[in-house]
Amino acid sequence: MKIYSHENQKLHKPKSFYSRGKIHQPQEKPERLTALLRAPEAMGLNVIDAKEIGIDPILAVHDFGYVEFLKNGYDEWIALEDEVGEEVQTSIYMPHNNFGLGILAKAAKYQADGSAPIGKYTWTSIYWSAQTALNAADALLKEGEPSNKVQICLTRPAGHHARKSAAGGFCYLNNAAIIAEYLKPKFKKIAIIDTDMHHGQGIQEIFYNRKDVLYASVHGSPINFYPIVSGHEHEKGEGEGYGYNNNFPMPHGTDEDGFFNYVDKAIDKVKLFNPDVVIHVLGFDVYKDDPQAKCNVSTNGFFRLSKKLKALNKPIIILVEGGYCIEKLNENLQAFISGFTLDE
């Protein structure tokens, strides 16, 4: 097992987020990564400091103008003569018929909702979040027969809501999509299984018309729940990608056994696809006491989840994404890791 992280991921410190007509205190904050890092430390496991892979894998997935906005938008925002807030944050959402002339137009074009503000150090953190994920993918590319079948990336901010040219849902760069594309020269078939509480509409959008990357997502029903407009069962993919996009929306209030009924259905899709590599988007926001939870997974449930993933017997890269019950992240991550290591 290899575990990766990078300290620069802590630099992004959002001030607030806007949802359902209210300004909320930030939930996606640096303390999340601090709590997650306690788990491998407590278990005596080494955490590898991620090295820089570069910008090219990011640009292979995301539009150039969007990446440029993420990198330079804050400086343009602060340079405005008018009084502005501490972060790039829009109240106008207009991705189409928008030439992006000026920073306010760019924000309207590239920010999909009120939960992905851009501060002074946001680019640094999201860039190193992507680099952390890329380190695991790079290790697989450089090995002959993969010897490290389990690699865990403590990535923050998360990525699965990030679309090809839009930030939202606390996400800016789509790490799962970036590493899936990066792995393609060596591995023909990639499966992404997503068990975060929320549907990863960004992953779905990027691979919707492709059959070389299978997406299977277990998440809370998106009816009146983020991301609101995607994640339904009937969304199966398009063209040659039809059937390779699989959504398993859970009714709100689903218990742990119900959660695993959906997980088993997603795993069955992965087994049928028979991928060369599995990418797992792990959300601790399915935990019963998480402020975002609409289901009731216990700490032991994460042990149970990793045992099921281990049984796939495939090289797997785990991206730790959602999870906002900070006081339980350490314990829950230890339980998850134990499912891979306990009988080794």
From TrEMBL:
| Cofactors named for this entry | Zn(2+)
Q: Where is the composition biased (Basic and acidic residues)?
A: 1-10
In what residue span(s) does the Histone deacetylase domain sit? 28-338
Q: Which InterPro entries match?
A: HDACs, His_deacetylse_dom, His_deacetylse_dom_sf, Ureohydrolase_dom_sf
Q: Give the GO terms filed under biological process for this record.
A: epigenetic regulation of gene expression
* Gene3D superfamilies, A to Z: Histone deacetylase domain (3.40.800.20)
- Swiss-Prot/TrEMBL keywords: Hydrolase, Metal-binding, Zinc
Task: Give a GO molecular function annotation for the protein.
Answer: histone deacetylase activity
Q: Which domain of life is it from?
A: Bacteria
Location of region: Disordered: 1-27
Q: Which family does it belong to?
A: Belongs to the histone deacetylase family.
Output this protein's name.
Acetoin utilization deacetylase AcuC
The lineage, from the top, is: Bacteria, Pseudomonadati, Pseudomonadota, Gammaproteobacteria, Oceanospirillales
